[in-house]
Amino acid sequence: MQQEYERYYVPAQSPWPIVGAVALFLIAVGAGTVVLETTKGESGYGTHTLTAGILVLLVMLFGWFKNQIDESMSGLYSDQLGRSYRQGMSWFIFSEVMFFAAFFGALFYARFISVPWLGGASNNEMTNAVLWPTFEAMWPLINTPDGTTTQVMSAAGLPTINTIILLVSSVTLHFAHTGLEQQKRKQLTWMLGVTILLGLIFLTLQVQEYIHAYRDLGLTLQSGVYGNTFFMLTGFHGMHVTLGTIILIVLFFRVLKGHFTPENHFAFQAGSWYWHFVDVVWVMLYIFVYVL
What pLDDT does residue 162 have? Predict the structure, then answer.
């Protein structure tokens, strides 16, 4: 069977790309609507649209993963296709790097350009007097033009705990990968299971952090540029952790079924790449959003 597909394997037509596009469209529309409704203090169809998009996305992931696994276990993939998968995953992670680079760029622009400019730096005293006379050039911005005051999310407590959790999860995933390469299936199973547990704990604590921000600190999406950048960066990162955890759960069930060998385990390797990337992003986020 391998010889038949030695040059390249072309899969059959699949409905999953268009299903995924519909899911992402619903998520984008739903998320944007939820933000607008939250800002205006209204309730509408945003939550329902976002939920529908997430459900469709999960259906797409389940169906597409199943097709990929069946093709791989049937011996249809060749070395050439394996190289294509590695190139594709590398470019995907690169696109994610640029995705977060744009958000970090927005943070740096607001902090080092807009804030000093509004504060009257570079001979802009007139701008300061006209646009926001009581503005204080400091970061984080805890005062908004309408007079609302918020509190800053401290790096101590949940953010630091979550940082430790993600760093430890990278170590456990590395030992899981080592166990796979050395044919130590018990080590592979346990370390991968611990990694998944740590990811779920991280997400649970992030929910607690958001509750604390809204209820105790008055830190919301309406809290000016500081609140916007805080929830934008941490929220999108949380979404990536959620996706990474789903990928690891799929890999865990495949491990239980006896899939993967030291010679053929790129799916596991790709999941590891993604998880380590998410961890690196969080370390940068922790430094630039919480500490500095």
Answer: 93
Other CB atoms within 10 A of residue 48 CB: 13
3-state secondary structure of 143: strand
CB 278 within 8 A of CB 234: no
Residue 140 has pLDDT above 90, yes or no: no
Does pLDDT of 249 surpass 90?
A: yes
Helices then strands, each counted (H, E), the chain: 9, 0
The pair of structure tokens assigned to 10 is 């072309």
Sign of the C-alpha dihedral, residues 170, 173, 179, 182?
negative
Same fold, 1-77 and 78-291: no
AA identity, residue 85: Y
Mean pLDDT for the stretch of residues 191-214: 94
Which tokens in the block code for residue 55? 């459900």
> Any idea where the domains of the chain sit in the sequence?
1-77, 78-291
Domain 1-77 fold is: Helix Hairpins (1.10.287)
78-291, CATH topology level:
Four Helix Bundle (Hemerythrin (Met), subunit A) (1.20.120)
Instruction: Residue 46: name the closest of 21, 25, 29, 24 by CA.
Output: 29
The contacts of residue 267 (CB under 8 Å, 6+ apart) are 68, 69, 72, 251, 254, 260
Q: Which long-range contacts (CB under 8 A, 24 or more apart) does 255-263 make?
A: 255/185, 255/188, 255/189, 255/192, 256/189, 259/69, 259/73, 260/180, 262/180, 262/181, 262/182, 262/183
